[in-house]
Automatic annotation (TrEMBL):
This is Cyclic nucleotide-binding domain-containing protein. Pfam families: cNMP_binding (PF00027). CDD domains: CAP_ED (cd00038). It comes from the Bacteria. Coiled coil: none annotated. InterPro entries: cNMP-bd_dom (IPR000595), cNMP-bd_dom_sf (IPR018490), RmlC-like_jellyroll (IPR014710). Residues 20-111 form the Cyclic nucleotide-binding domain. Transmembrane segments: none annotated.
Length: 213
C-alpha cells in the first residue's frame, strides 16, 4: 500500500461507494482559534484534516490545556468509540481549517470491510504510534535543546491553510505548545531559545545534521 493513498479519492473512484459519498461525507470550515470539539462533547464523526493545522490535547488537574499532538493535512482524528468512555481530548485550530467529516458508522464499516482501506488505516495508525513513541523517547532521553531541535526538524515546513495562505507550522507554536510537546516547561524552553540566540550559526548547522528517526 502506497503512502500516497488518499481515502476520499479512493471512495470517489470506487463504484461501490460513489452513491454514498454525499450521504455519509461532508465538509466543514473552522477559524483559527476555534475548538472543533471538547472532552464533554459526544461525537459520532471521524474527521479528516484537509487543509490547515490542528493541535490535540487534554486538561491537567488544574484545568490548564496540555498539547500532545499536532495534526497536519491527511491526518484522521476524533472519537472512534474504542476507549470505553475514556476519550478526553480537545482539538483546537492553529490556522483556518477545512475538515472532511465521515459518518462514524460508515467510516468504521469501510475500514473493516474493504481490504485496501483496512491496509491504509493500519499503516496510518502504526505511523501515528511511531511518531508518538519517538517523541516520548526523545522526551525521556534527550537534553531540552535536542528535543526542540527535533521538534523543529519535524515541523519546520510550510503548508496552506483553508484560505490558501502559506504558514510555517513551527512558527505557529507558542512557548507553551513547545514545552508540552517536548515534555518541559515554558521556562526551560525560554532558556533554550536564549541559548539558540547566542549561537545561531552553530545551531543552524546542528539542526541541519539532526536526523529524525
Amino acid at each position: 500500500m502506497s503512502n500516497n493513498f488518499l481515502l476520499y479519492n479512493y471512495l470517489q473512484k470506487s463504484p461501490r461507494y460513489k452513491g454514498k459519498i454525499s450521504e455519509r461525507i461532508s465538509s466543514l470550515f473552522f477559524k483559527k482559534g476555534d475548538y472543533i470539539y471538547k472532552p464533554s462533547e459526544e461525537l459520532y464523526t471521524a474527521y479528516e484534516l484537509v487543509k490547515g493545522v490542528v493541535k490535540v490535547g487534554s486538561y491537567s488537574k488544574d484545568g490548564n490545556e496540555c498539547v500532545y499532538d499536532i495534526l497536519k493535512p491527511g491526518d484522521i482524528f476524533g472519537n472512534l468509540h474504542y476507549l470505553d468512555g475514556n476519550f478526553q481530548e480537545f482539538t483546537k485550530c492553529l490556522t483556518d481549517v477545512e475538515l472532511r467529516l465521515y459518518d462514524l458508522v460508515f467510516y468504521k464499516r469501510i475500514v473493516i470491510q474493504d481490504y485496501n482501506i483496512a491496509e491504509w488505516f493500519n499503516q496510518y495508525i502504526v505511523r501515528r504510534w511511531c511518531r508518538a513513541e519517538t517523541r516520548f523517547f526523545t522526551t525521556i532521553s534527550e537534553d531540552i535543546l535536542i528535543r526542540i531541535k527535533r521538534l523543529y526538524k519535524e515541523f519546520n515546513y510550510t503548508i496552506k491553510d483553508a484560505n490558501g495562505k502559506e504558514v510555517n507550522i513551527f512558527a505557529l507554536f507558542s512557548q507553551k505548545d513547545i514545552a508540552d510537546l517536548t515534555g518541559s516547561t515554558r521556562q526551560s524552553v525560554a532558556q533554550a531559545f536564549r541559548r539558540i540566540e547566542n549561537k545561531q550559526e552553530s545551531l543552524k548547522m546542528e539542526m541541519d545534521t539532526v536526523k529524525m528517526p
